[in-house]
Write a structure and sequence with these properties.
Length: about 325
């Protein structure tokens, strides 16, 4: 699997002591600072906006990486399509009342810096092995969004994007602040303003009868890599919530969901994030997503006031009732 390259990169770092502090040094001279307790310093604001798809396109079925020419074509093409869309906006009654041009969005304009053809790196074909019953439930939910709020994604309902969904790129707000103490790792998500405070001192998960939206997480270090294991999910979340999740959007997550995340800093400005998901009610085999996170400490994270002025759900439900009255009057 190609993500092993990044593990090898991190493992190849040399350990030295300078000015009384512990550092990891790579062959190109980059020196990674350590926290006071000697762990790799992952702190900062990291982003992952990208045009790389979560699943590998059929046209690239046997390809792990893009060529420089393909990268240039993709990035040039998306820039042109967005310019054309902005130049041809038609404002009309009942039209898009939200992000009607690119000024409202921040979905990235480049492929991942690794040049990989998809975020999914395992299975080797870059496709999620979603089982048919999970696809059927996803489609049933989408077909009934006008009938009940429970059929909307939990992101649309301003609850959470879950794990690992909170780390997946979306159309905007793709920033994550990592804070470390000797006994905790804290991840602050710009989208939905979720906060995970993950203990490093805890080795056992809470009682399995306790089920949470974002599960119960415990963390430990494996060499230079932070490993976070999450269990104890409720069965009301979804694997992915935004359109960037492609076919995974709306796929239900069961109580059996088990997620193992790995954070490995490989350069001054890059962390490789990897997440392996196992859920027998969603996938026929484990799925691994891998992508670089880019350091952007000048990025300003603001409050994501999702509930305030969010009339989307009641408006969609009222549209469904209006449609029913119209149909009844025509019968």
């Amino acid at each position: 699997m190609k993500t092993d390259l990044w593990k090898l990169t991190a493992a190849a770092c040399l350990v030295s002591i300078a000015s009384g502090a512990l550092f990891a040094q790579s062959d190109d001279g980059w020196v990674m600072g350590r926290t006071p307790d000697g762990q790799p310093d992952l702190q900062g604001v990291w982003t992952n906006d990208t045009i790389t798809p979560i699943e590998r396109p059929a046209s690239l079925a046997d390809r792990d990486f893009l060529t420089p020419e393909e990268i240039e074509a993709m990035e040039t093409g998306i820039a042109q399509r967005r310019t054309d869309a902005d130049n041809n906006i038609v404002v009309r009654a009942g039209g898009n009342v939200g992000g009607y041009n690119q000024i409202w969005l921040d979905s990235g304009d480049t492929v991942l810096s690794t040049g990989q053809t998809s975020m999914i790196v395992d299975p080797p074909n870059g496709r999620a092995p979603i089982i048919e019953s999970a696809l059927a439930e996803r489609d049933f939910y989408f077909a009934n969004v006008e009938n009940d709020y429970v059929y909307h994604t939990v992101w649309d309902r301003c609850i959470t994007r879950g794990v690992p969904g909170s780390m997946l790129p979306a159309g905007y707000n793709n920033a994550y602040r990592i804070i470390q103490t000797p006994d905790t790792i804290t991840i602050v998500y710009e989208m939905i303003h979720d906060v995970r405070v993950i203990p490093l001192s805890k080795t056992e998960h809470i009682d399995p009868k306790v089920r949470l939206w974002m599960g119960d997480s415990v963390a430990h270090w494996e060499g230079e890599t932070l490993v976070i294991e999450t269990k104890n999910f409720n069965d009301r979340g979804m694997i992915a919530n935004s359109s960037a999740g492609g076919r995974l959007k709306g796929v239900p997550a069961s109580e059996h969901l088990h997620v193992v995340e790995r954070f490995t800093r490989v350069s001054e400005g890059t962390i490789i994030w990897e997440a392996t998901m196992t859920d027998p009610e969603a996938f026929s085999s484990p799925v691994t997503i891998s992508m670089p996170l880019t350091l952007e400490n000048d990025y300003q994270m603001y409050e994501y006031a999702c509930h305030e002025g969010n009339y989307a759900i009641p408006n969609i439900l009222s549209a469904g009732r209006a449609r029913e009255r119209m149909q009844a009057s025509n019968d």
